[in-house]
Amino acid sequence: MNWSDLVRGWQIGTASDRTDVTENEAVEEDRVMPLVDIQLIEGVFDADQKRKMIEDVTEAMVRIEGEPLRGVTWVRVQEIASGAWGIGGKAMTATDVKSAQAQSA
Description:
Elements: H1 3-7, E1 11-13, E2 32-41, H2 47-65, E3 74-80, E4 85-87, E5 90-92, H3 94-104
């Protein structure tokens, strides 16, 4: 099966976007594929950690929605430039986050 066959008939969104699809709906054309965004400060997590996030979030969606959604669950890891993410009025950098992680360990 190729990529276009896998996603044909599915829409990107969340199940809560739809009121006309029942839990046992069998028609793929009426199903919504989940899209999960994970936003991180660039430079905090390595490639293996991001891969693990994608795997674990996909597993969580499958546990909730069922095995048929595995192949159409989209997980995007978006990295925000270090210093371009603010918390409490302060720009956070990768160094700030790593320092906080070290203090809590």
